[in-house]
Amino acid sequence: MKRVLVSGGSGFLGSHLCEKLLNEGNEVLCVDNLFTGRKDNIHHLLDHKNFEFMRHDITFPLYVEVDEIYNLACPASPVHYQFDPVQTIKTSVLGAINMLGLAKRLKVKILQASTSEIYGDPEVHPQPENYKGCVNTIGIRACYDEGKRCAETLFFDYNRQHKLTIKVMRIFNTYGPRMHPNDGRVVSNFIIQALMGRDITIFGTGQQTRSFCYVDDNIEGMYKLMNSRDGFAGPVNIGNPCEFTMLDLAEKIIDLTGSNSKLVFMPLPQDDPMQRKPCIELAKKELNWEPKINIDEGLIKTVSYFERILSKNKIIINDSYQTELIKQA
Q: Which member of 177, 184, 214, 288 lies 3.0 to 4.6 Å from 79 by CB, making a disulfide possible if both were Cys?
């Protein structure tokens, strides 16, 4: 049995990872400041004998004893990371320094949850790990993009300078139950708008593409990366290479929900990538990983989740707030 620290453990991905680690027989220390993470996501784990929750902001040092560290802490949707951009970049950079310092002191393995956002608005398609990216360093998304790029640099410098065992995972668009309902991301936005019978907001012409990976596949890739062979640090793309336009996605969700929602078109946000699709050949080779859950199966599960929380009145989305979210996303 290992004692595993998951920073950002009450977030969307973090809560699923905590569950996976417990199911594999580990003790889990879930660390989160609850800025975007939610206690609801881990409520079913709180009574587990091997689970512990600690409220803490990783921009401050943390002194605990663990055998392994997954660093997932950081706001990950445009609405949330643009709300306080300075804090976002501090979480990525200072948080990485603090988690790496802890791993160095304990001499333990550490995984960084990086992002496909480090590729920016890519000029190479699909994006392989050796592509250096096309990022606007002073744009409104830079706090997240550049923060994650700097975190990757820190991880590899700690590896070279201190011989620290690291794993770096670049996460592409992921969706599924426990997504934050007000995160402004396309899947949660479209589903909630459809379920509430509201207009579905399409940015630009709707021809921009994304590749959507179901959360269970993502977590399996993360777990396999952490337990991959010695000497393999990554970075490695984890995502689903099946590509869809925003119009395709909207039509699928309208069909699955039986909604009468209409499509409305709004200006494309600044620095919004036109294409995003992972090359996953490295993940196939090194991790024997590729996604198994197709978009229809994943969306059915995700729609069911949002139907439940809407029916229980666990979220309130008023018109003015939803409009503001759409503008920010």
A: 184
Contact of 3 with 31, CB cutoff 8 Å: no
259, amino acid identity: S
235 preceded by a cis bond (ω within 30 of 0): yes
144 is catalytic: yes
As beta bridge partners, residue 264 has 201
Residue type, position 109, single letter: K
Longest dimension (CA), the chain: 58
Per-residue pLDDT of the chain (329 residues; tens, 9 = 90+): 999 999 999 999 999 999 999 999 999 999 999 998 999 999 999 999 999 999 999 999 999 999 999 999 998 777 777 888 999 999 999 999 999 999 999 999 999 999 999 998 888 989 999 999 888 889 888 888 999 999 999 999 999 999 999 999 999 999 999 998 877 788 999 999 999 999 998 888 888 888 999 999 999 999 999 999 989 999 999 999 998 899 999 999 999 999 999 999 988 777 677 788 999 999 999 999 999 999 999 999 999 999 998 887 655 454 433 443 333 33
Query: Tokens 């008023």 correspond to what residue?
Result: 318
Torsion of CA 85, 91, 97, 101, to 10 degrees: 170
Supply the DSSP string of 46-114, one letter for each residue. TT-TTEEEEE--TTS------SEEEE--S--SHHHHHHSHHHHHHHHHHHHHHHHHHHHHHT-EEEEEE
Q: Which of 70, 119, 144, 158 is catalytic?
A: 144
pTM of the entire structure? Answer: 0.90
Which amino acid belongs to residue 267? P
